[in-house]
């Protein structure tokens, strides 16, 4: 989930967000025209040597059930850093604070321009990793890919703040959205990677981001069901990741017309993603 940056963590935690729900398959409407994916694209893999985010630059803390803040334990901090190290270093360049919330009633994740809050209980490591990557997607969208000038406002708004024409993310938003609240009349379920992605253009971006990172091959296979989804895949590949492709997930032709509600609860090879695979 995304949020506007607040001066106090408490204000962020009290902000209103939609709750994430379980997974389900969407209704199948029509058989789409397949999109041709070049073999060299399918065989490409990410080649970046992502620098480990600086501990000095990011403040890691823990919020107790009682609402007090403490320094995060070293092992938990190193675990989070190991995830971020798999991504281009610039994708966490706007991140200043990362909080693990030990309140079991907390949202699974909140993310914005410079702050991420993750629930630290009732989630296994694989799910928490996926939620972290989803929230980093918000950081990339709202912080790293921020507008270069504020001369002309677009039709999109992030809360009360305008999104300006110089914002690169507009190239993604406008594929399926007329505004932050209105999907294009031509949009179909096949144009989105998940049900949650249909919430607004910001969640559309973040769900596509985590899908690209953890389920890249499946994302490419789903892109065969929609010209728009293929354009979203290419935007994330070429604009967000500058051509880098993750060798993650599996090609699943038997499920081309199915969409989960939430990408972050899908199973994946965590050890393989972190480079700890023993096979």
Average pLDDT score: 82
Oligomer: single chain
Number of helices: 9
Stretches where pLDDT falls below 50 for ≥5 residues?
4-51
Question: Element order, helices and strands?
Answer: HHEEHEEEHEEHHHHH
**Biggest beta-sheet profile:** 5 strands, mixed
Helix/strand/pairing category? alpha/beta
Radius of gyration: 18 Å
Helix content range: 25-40%
Give the CA-based shape. Answer: globular
Main-sheet strand order equals: 2-1-3-5-4
Top keywords for this entry?
single chain, 279 residues, alpha/beta, 5-stranded mixed β-sheet, two-stranded antiparallel ribbon, 11% strand, globular
Please characterize this protein's 3D structure.
By secondary structure, this protein is of the alpha/beta class. The chain has one domain. 30% of the residues lie in helices and 11% in strands. It contains nine helices and seven strands. Strands 2-1-3-5-4 form a five-stranded mixed β-sheet, with helices on one face. It has a two-stranded antiparallel sheet with strand order 6-7. The protein is globular. The two termini are 34 Å apart.
Task: Describe the structure in brief.
The chain is an alpha/beta fold and 279 residues long.
């Amino acid at each position: 989930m995304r949020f506007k940056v607040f001066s106090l963590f408490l204000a962020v935690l009290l902000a209103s967000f939609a709750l994430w729900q379980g997974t389900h398959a969407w209704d199948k409407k029509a058989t789409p025209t397949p999109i041709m994916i070049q073999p060299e694209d399918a065989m490409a893999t990410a080649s970046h040597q992502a620098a480990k985010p600086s501990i000095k630059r990011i403040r890691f803390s823990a919020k107790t059930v009682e609402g007090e803040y403490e320094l995060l334990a070293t092992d938990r901090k190193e675990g989070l850093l190991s995830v971020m190290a798999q991504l281009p270093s610039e994708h966490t360049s706007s991140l200043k604070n990362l909080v693990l919330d030990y309140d079991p009633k907390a949202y699974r994740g909140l993310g914005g321009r410079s702050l991420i809050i993750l629930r630290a209980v009732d989630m296994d490591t694989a799910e928490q990793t996926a939620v972290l990557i989803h929230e980093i997607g918000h950081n990339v969208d709202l912080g790293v890919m921020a507008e270069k000038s504020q001369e002309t406002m677009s039709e999109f708004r992030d809360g009360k703040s305008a999104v300006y024409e110089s914002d690169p993310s507009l190239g993604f938003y406008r594929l399926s959205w007329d505004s932050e609240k209105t999907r294009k009349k031509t949009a179909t379920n096949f144009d989105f990677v998940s049900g949650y992605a249909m919430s607004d253009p910001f969640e559309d971006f973040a769900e596509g981001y985590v899908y690209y990172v953890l389920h890249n091959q499946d994302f490419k296979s789903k892109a065969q069901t929609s010209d728009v989804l293929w354009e979203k895949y290419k935007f994330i590949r070429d604009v967000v990741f500058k051509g880098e492709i993750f060798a993650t997930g599996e090609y699943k032709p038997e499920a081309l017309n199915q969409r989960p509600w939430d990408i972050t609860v899908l199973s994946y090879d965590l050890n393989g993603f972190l480079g700890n695979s023993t096979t």
